[in-house]
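Hi R.,

Here's the chain you asked about this morning:
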Amino acid sequence: MNKFFTIILTICTFSIAFSQNKVHFIITDESAIPLVGANVVITGTTIGTTADIEGKAELNNLSDGKVFIRISYIGYEEKRITLNFPADNNKTIRIKLKEGEELEEIVISTTRSSRTIEDIPTRIEAITGEELGEKEAMNSSNIGMLLRETTGIQMQQTSLASGNMSIKIQGLDGRYTQLLKDGFPLYSGFAGGLSIMQIPPIDLKQVELIKGSNSTLYGGGAIAGLVNLVSIVPENKPRLTIMLNQTSAKGSTGNIFYAQKYGSTGVTLYGSAYSQVAYDPDDDGFSNIPETNSISFNPKFFYYVNPNIELNLGLNTTFDKRTGGDMQIIKDHADEEHVFSEQNTSERYSTQFLFLNKSDHHTLRAKNSISYFSRELKIQEYRFSGNQISSFTEILYTFQKNEKTDWQFGINHYYEKFAEKKTDTMSVRDYNHNTWGGFVQYTSELGPMFTLESGFRADYDLTHGIFLLPRTSLLLKTNKNLVLRLGGGMGYKLPTIFTEDAERLYFKNISPLMMDNTSPETSMGGNFDINYKTVLFDKFTFAINQFFYVTRLKNALVLNENELTNIHVFENADGPILTSGFETNIKLTYDNQKLYLNYALINTKLKYDNINKQKPLTPKNNAGLVLMYDEEEKWSIGYELYYTGWQFDEQYQKKTDYWEMGFMVMKHFKKTSVFINFENFSNTLQTNYEPLVLPPVNTPSFPDIWAPTDGFIFNGGIKINIR
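And the predicted structure, written out as tokens:
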């Protein structure tokens, strides 16, 4: 009997042993270059592996029967295969992945080149795909959250009552960042006010960032860098996205986006509504988040004349009203003591027109946008009101000589007119900018390792004269794991009164600009970065980007006060602003888990008026950690930890450092995702360190904002995707 059981046990053991199968993969791109870190995952499970430095991967202990396997790599189209064991046991399967369109389109929209993001010499950062969706869940009402958590970028709140923010890149104020939508500069000058707060993210395919002086690309304004928001375009399959979001701070957002191509026509429709009840988390009697009602509606029509010719026409509209300040005023309980409030009412309209004619080696693009923006700001007995009309026209011809060389030639015209409505004894601050420009860009592979991109722009402004703007970037691919980039360029900014300093003063008691005595701000900058990626222990994918930069800003426009008259006057600084530093980004991937580490050193020195100190409200040290778990079509879970170092306020009083934490969970179903997000659950608040409002209540003053003002907020919602 014992021998019988021994025989049965032996047979079972051998059966189990022989049912454990394995399979080998060699994963490359279409040029047979190994894709280091490519993911090989058994569909519907967390079982998987990653390709090593030779593109090799292996799956073991596979049971008999059909096994469904997914092979993927960032920037490439994934491939799914079905294996049948034991027939496929111990086989070696060669997988070639095609480069995806997503990264290629990122390059086209920002640099006007036909090359992929990995092959272009200009350093581009892109927020796409899953990351964009996760940030969207954290804040679906505007793109502030999306940009704030990007290395080297600071979202600076300029007003407690309105909640207004500006984007600071590499320590430079928001006016030095050029903000584009699909390559159209829609948000400059007066129209830049409240812009970050009025751009929801649901219709975005990707967000592209180029840091440093780059006015050669799109003209004046890109001294600190540029941000290009790229919209989703229609495809043959319909796309409908509905997103509803509710916060614990009594904010409600509803977004809807639809896109579809109908033969020779196509359409995208986007609508958003945001409602916020005034919120006072620190119980000081003043709102930290204003009462807000905002509506946006953006239709866009596409007409495809033939496979080579395309026309599209779009309209953007936004209506926004914000009321902040004393909670008693907001609740209609005003009395002799409770009288302070800030009301902002704005309207924004813009059109976009594009004509595209492309062939194998030639492309002609003609685009135009016309924008109108009006804003009225009221505090107690003071009112500031005005409107801005602007237009942008560009004609671009691209000639691709061969696969290694292409040229771009273009001309453009930019017009901006601001008209203030006279409301007090001060003279109106009207201005007019009328600028013509021409540019050329050349991109060529100089050999198997080097690619050069260089450009030159000449702009002529009717008031301020000629600006000559060279730009160059060099790419060095030493091997498939190590890539280096070196670049430099110039920038300029035409003067206006619309700066962060003026916004803090509500544009009150500020003299008009004397254009004859005010020079444009100009800059020169350079950057160098190193990209390295490899596989560790045959399981972990490791990537690091080390970025160094320096920018010198000349003729900075500063606001000085005449103490006798209490009138503020804009003047050009008698010395430069010098900003330099580095950014470190590390990514470690294992199966479905990703760890992101980042650090930014921002050394922005004011070298004028004998200051020679770090720029106020610019922390020198910033760091972050993000841990993500993504199981395809099932779960997305993330934890974030951010550190902000000490900084000066405008009076050069040193402010302490602080930490923020966040946690997000998103459950994916077939066509629906539900999510909950805990933002700043450490409840870091500036009022933990000092008051945000100083007495008296009827005429309060507001210290500089250098830390979070809204505290811990959780939000939850649902996102429906129908494709």
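Residues 633 and 670 are 7 Å apart (CA to CA).

Let me know if you need anything else.
M.
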